[in-house]
Amino acid sequence: MPSQNGRTIVVTGTGGLGFHDALALARAGGDVIIAGRNPRKGSDAVARIKQSVRQARVSYEPVDLADLASVAEFGRRLGDGRERVDTLINNAAVMTPPQRQTTTAGFELQFGTNYLGHFALTAHLLPMLRRGRDPRVITLSSIAVRRNAAINLNDLQAEKAYQPMPVYAQSKLACLMFALELQRRSVEAGWGLTSIAAHPGISRTDLLHNAPGRYSVQGLLRSILWFLFQPAAQGALPTLFAATSPDARGGKYYGPDRLSETRGHPGEAAIPAAALDMQVARRLWEVSEDLAKVDFTAAAATPLQPHRSGPGLVAEV
Questions:
Q1: How wide is the angle at C-alpha 31 spanned by C-alphas 248 and 73, nearest 5°?
Q2: 172-to-165, 169, 181, 224 alpha-carbon distances in Å
Q3: Containing H/E element for 114?
């Protein structure tokens, strides 16, 4: 991994893949901000990283991706205290709650957290990202999008019919389409961002324990057949490659390179046909701006003025 000295990196999620992203990036010298909704888990993640990396520059900031007001407040708070963000890793997720749940604004929980919360977060951080050095946005998708995943524009919130896995797959397909559309718009509008998608294959995280439950069918399979899941640190590698490698390219999708992309080392992943439908991607983007109450064009037009980082202190950009 190239040195991350001097780079400010935001990673959403306090455990699993997000923790291993943050650990590796702190080890490489990055100034890492772990963003998540649970202060105890966030503080614990920071303590564990500092125990492993003595000189780590790592901190925790609260944000609830299921609450758009919390996302907006996080963006304001970060903008008040930081000059720029160089890398944003949209990682945190919830997976397959057995019953339909909703966010604070009434959106279906998986769509609202996995996709819409990160869509809004990226918009709120866009002015800071545009100040960044070689800024990158990495958005996590899933191998769940490979088979029959689709964007149902007529029922994005699964109000008519809720099935946990198809709804999860839709949220992760939306993440992949967002990553690709963000790259297209960045190139067209000259935003200067590199947007890349990644997925972890099948990795040993707590997603299946946290949402369906430890004693659900999925949770029991995760516990009993743990050896089929690669370690979370291994699953984090495609994300880390996308976030740091000079060989990673905007508009690409990276995942594990072995056993149908379920495990291995970073390689270019197959993009399903549904994710390449630019008409649906544009419509999803428009709907998402309306739902999240954000405007990427307006955010990108924010003047890149010197940032006042403290009394009498002005950081040049």
A1: 100
A2: 11, 5, 14, 26
A3: none
How far, in Å, are 16, 47, 200 from residue 236 at the CA level? 9, 20, 6
CATH 3.40.50.720 fits 8-297, yes or no: yes
Q: Tokens 């379920």 appear where? A: 262
- The catalytically annotated residue of 168, 215, 253, 254 is 168
Which residues is 258 bridged to in the sheet? 263
Per-residue CA distances from 243 to 247, 300, 309 (Å): 10, 21, 26
Catalytic residue at 168? yes
**β-strands 253-258, 263-268 pairing:** antiparallel
- Tens place of pLDDT for every residue, the chain, 317 residues? 999 999 999 999 999 999 999 999 999 999 999 999 999 999 999 999 999 999 999 999 999 999 999 999 999 999 999 999 999 999 999 999 999 999 999 999 999 999 999 999 999 999 999 999 999 999 999 999 998 899 999 999 999 999 999 999 999 999 999 999 999 999 999 999 999 999 999 986 665 545 554 444 444 444 444 445 699 999 999 999 999 999 999 999 999 999 889 999 999 999 999 999 999 999 999 999 999 999 999 999 987 655 554 433 333 22
The half-sphere exposure of 99 on its side-chain side, counting CA atoms within 13 A, is 1
| Among candidate residues 267, 117, 129, 274, the one with its CA nearest the CA of residue 195 | 129
Identity of the amino acid at 36: G
Residue 217 bridge partners (DSSP): none
Among 207, 221, 226, 203, smallest CA distance to 164 is for 207
Q: Where are the beta strands (DSSP E) in the chain?
A: 8-12, 31-36, 57-62, 87-90, 136-140, 194-198, 203-204, 230-231, 253-258, 263-268, 307-310, 313-315
Whether the CB-CB separation of 110 and 119 falls below 8 Å is answered with no
Question: What one-character DSSP code corresponds to residue 146?
Answer: T
pTM, two decimal places = 0.90
